[in-house]
Specification:
The protein is mostly helical. It is built from four helices and no strands. About 50% of the residues lie in helices and about 0% in strands. It is globular and about 30 Å long.
């Protein structure tokens, strides 16, 4: 992985939702209704293998990270919550204690 930017966890969710809407061609209002348990890959027709590749590229660009093949597991795309956790692992968000 590349050097890790410091992004507050609260910023990951809205940026990831925008990226999902853009990548999948879904209305932002629909993506805004997703919760952490909303299933993605295999549940949304728009979320196919090409969308995964485009989403990974978008994550790299949006969050300034380099994603290695070894960083990615199929489970990371199962739900919004697992995808968010994947991105948070990549960016190592700041802790506001």
């Amino acid at each position: 992985m590349a050097a890790q930017p410091q992004i507050p966890s609260a910023d990951v969710d809205p940026a990831l939702r925008r990226l999902l809407a853009e990548t999948l061609g879904l209305p932002a209002a629909r993506v805004d209704t997703f919760d952490d348990s909303t299933e993605l890959f295999g549940a949304l027709a728009e979320f196919d293998s090409m969308a995964v590749a485009n989403l990974l590229t978008g994550i790299e660009e949006t969050f300034s990270v380099l994603i290695e093949d070894s960083d990615v597991e199929a489970e990371d795309f199962a739900s919004l919550g697992s995808l968010k956790a994947f991105v948070e692992r990549l960016v190592k968000p700041l802790r506001h204690d």
